[in-house]
Each structure stands twice: as structure tokens, then as C-alpha cells.
Amino acid sequence: MWLLYKTFLFSISIGVLTFSPARAVTSIDINIVKDGTHIKTIELILIKKMGYLKGIDIAEIFNADIDYKTSTKEVFLRWPVPKEERRADDYVSADIKFKIGSDIVVMEGIKRKMMKTPKIIKGKVYLPLEAVITRAFKSIAGAQIQWSFKDRTLWISYEGNIADSRYYTYNDYTRFVIELTRKLEYTTKVSGDLIEVMIKKAKLSVPTEEIKVNDGVINKVEVNVSGRGVEFTLKTGKDAGNSDIKNYPSPPRIVMDIKNKSASEKSREASRKMDKLPPHPAGPAKRDKVDIDNINLVVVDPGHGGKDPGAIGPRGTKEKDVVLAIAKKTATYIKKNLKARVLLTRTDDYFVPLAGRIKMANDKEADIFISIHANASFNPESEGFEIYFLSDSASDEEAQSVANMENSVVAMEQGTKNLSNVNSILWSLTMNQFLNESSELCSFINKEVIGATGLVERGVKQAGFYVMKGARMPAVLVETAFISNKREERLLNDKNFQDKIARAISTSLKGYRDWIKKR
Length: 519
Hints:
This protein is an alpha+beta fold. The protein has helices at about 55-60, 130, 135-140, 265-275, 320-340, 355-365, 395-405, 420-435, 435-455, 485-495, 495-519, and strands at about 25-35, 35-45, 50-55, 65-70, 75-80, 90-100, 105, 110-115, 120, 125-130, 145-150, 155, 160-170, 175-180, 185-190, 195-200, 210, 220-225, 230-235, 240-250, 250-260, 295-300, 340-345, 370-375, 385-390, 455-465, 475-480.
């Protein structure tokens, strides 16, 4: 039924081009697949790493009407009510309201904030891709929607009742989740290293045959579709312990938790390493002024981890893996060259909340905080090295989009609350004390890394990274290279390149230490 496109008119008259041609605009073709069938290929516009679709394309794909009001700059997406359900003067069952230049969208009568704003480009309405893949949009459109940057595909399903399947690796267990559109009957069977879940009368929203995990607890998950339904077979690994399988009603989902038998030993080892740290030199319990005159303790933070893989490259490289390797090498060189103590926020593939990372640095009264990441962009040609220090406002639109991507993990942290106005002000005051020191540290690292690697220099930038908020020491965030670029993805996997980055960071700290001693 979804194959029969609804005919509609989209008539707008726009006399002024409201998009600045000076901004970098590129585009890629993406595939639209409905219920397993390729429907068409459309254009995705990329503006400073931000993805946009034509409003008229969105309307056609999801069988909606679109209307642009020039007087108010408002854009409406509407789904007509079926005739048999229509009341007097009733036209729509749901609508979505955007406004050109505004990051607020109204869905299901609720105002929601987007990372991007709708635009007019060459007289046409363009809407942020992010709005289309939200849970609210799915609810209004009555479809399951998934976006795959790697495959350049937008998957849409009206028939599938398995909305998604995913896994999260925590320090002490691995969780595998099968999200459903409604409650379905299922059976389970545990036999040796296999856990089988058969979901009756189930259909996949997105074709899936195998999910590779390889975290020691789960090796992989095989997905088999038959006339009976869909069967998920979890092949567990050497660290797999007892399993617990439950179902939850909102949203409907089947959750499998498998304990990590080696986790307790990992936790004890981490505690031993923390306990072995010698005491910090005499000084205030909480640094409340810029009084750093040496580098005694450096906290190195490998970004992401566990349930948060970070960005994923075209060949499947996970950001969390390569940055952990670089961070470990960096720690080794800092210890050797600076004779300083080093603490890693994580030493393996497990999840650490963003707030917990900087708390670790504050509690240990660290002198430097370095968060290591791999960059990513919708534009596969984006390349180079850039580094950030914390600021209330981003240095440019692209810097803000990088911060948005890195901050997106906050949504995974249950119970995370926004800073109150008072806390925000106090944080800003603390941050400003180390603004100059952080900026200088960025300059030292930027110079050394570019010299050592020959990467394209993208410069020192500033943005509001959540992971650095509240730092009571100079703090920087390193974006080593673009994992979304095939060439740089290969570099990030290369041990020699990882070594160059680590050595350069260590060398830069020596230069920075000389600078702070001369102030």
C-alpha cells in the first residue's frame, strides 16, 4: 500500500535567497528503502557536517502534504485523515511545524529543540535530517525509520514490527535489546554458548543477518527470518556468565543482560591502580585559582566506550577502539618523558558517563585533562586534525556541530540533568580561569601533531563540550583524524600513526610545561 504515492501540490513563492552562498555546501546521493524495496535515490545536502533533505522529498517519501507560509516563514508537514475517519472540518491527524532559521520544531504539540535549523536554499525548503529520524516523527508518520550513514540509506518500514536491535557493552555485563513496535509472543532457549530468542509473527523493519559484537561476552548475533517469525541467536564468548531475559512494555522490548565473568577482576585492578597513585603535592583540596606551576598528574580520557561506540568508519572501525589505543600510548609516553603520573578514565571497553570523567580529574586534582576522539563528517572528503578548548560559545558553526556530536552521548546517561542557571554561571566562572591556559595547551599540541603526522591543519577551535564542563584545570579535546574518511580511517587503525599522535601529545606537554614555568 505504501508503494502507491499520494499526489499532492507543493506550491511556494520565494523571492529572496536566505542562504549564504559563501558557506560550504556539498551533497551526496542517499537511498530510500521502504519495507525492503529500493524506492528512489534522493539528494542529501551537507552544510558544515549537517545533513538536510528537501522538504518536498520528505513529504513525498512519507505520503504527506507540505506547505510553506512566506509571511511567517513556517513550514508544515500534514498527514490527511482518512475519509472514513474524518469529522466535520477535520483535515489532519497530525502535523509538524518548522520555522526557517529556528531550531524549534513542534511535533505532537510539543516543542522540541534540534541541533540544526531549517533553511531556504536556492528557493527551496530544506529540513534537517535529524528531525526525520526522531521517535516523535516516527510516531506521527506511522513508520519505523532508521538512517545508516555507512550505507547512505534511509530505511522506512510500515510492515515491520521489530523496530531495532542493538547492544551495549558495560563494564560488568553486556546488554542486547530487541525493540518492538508492539508486544509480541516469544520463546527463549539457552544451550551451551547459545541463547536463542524466537519472536513469533515478527517482521524486521531493517534487513539484518548478523550483528558482530566481539566484546568477550557476546561474539555475534545471527538473525534468521522464517515463516514462523524472526529468531535471534546470540553466540556468547569466553567472558559470558549468567544471563537474564526480560520484556518491558514502554517501549515494547526484549532485554537480555549477560554478566561479564571477568568484570569483577577488572574492577579490582582499576581500584588498585587508583590506590597506587601517590598523593598530590600539598595544596588546596579544590583548586579555585590558576596556580598550576608544574605538571604532576595528567588525566587522559579515551572518548566513548562500551554502549557508546562513537563514530563508525566506512570499513566499520569504531571510534571507541582507536582512541583507547591512542590514549594508552599517550599515557605511556607522558609517564616516560615528563615523569608525571597519568590516569586513564577508562582502560578497557566500558562506558563512563561524561560527567564522571571530569569528576575523576577533579577528585584527583589533576593538572591537565586531555580527551581524545576521532572526528566524523557527512562529507567523506573531510580530513585533518583539529583541537578544542572549552567555551560558552563555539568559534564557528562547524565547531558547534562537532560539539553536538560528542555531546550526544548525554542522552544515554540515565538521570543526567541540565545544569541549573546558577550552576551554569559558576561553571562559566571556573572555566574562564583556565581559558588562556587551555588555549595555549591547544596551540602546543596542534603544532606538534601537525609536524609529526603531516595531517591537514584545521586549527585550534572552541566549543561547549560537556565532557570538559566543570574542569578545575586546563582541559582540551583532541579530534585526531576523520574516521569517516577512508584514508584517515586506515591511519587511525595504523599502530605507527597512533604512536605518532601519542608521542606528539607527550612532546607538546613538555613545551607547555616550560611555558607555564616562565609565566
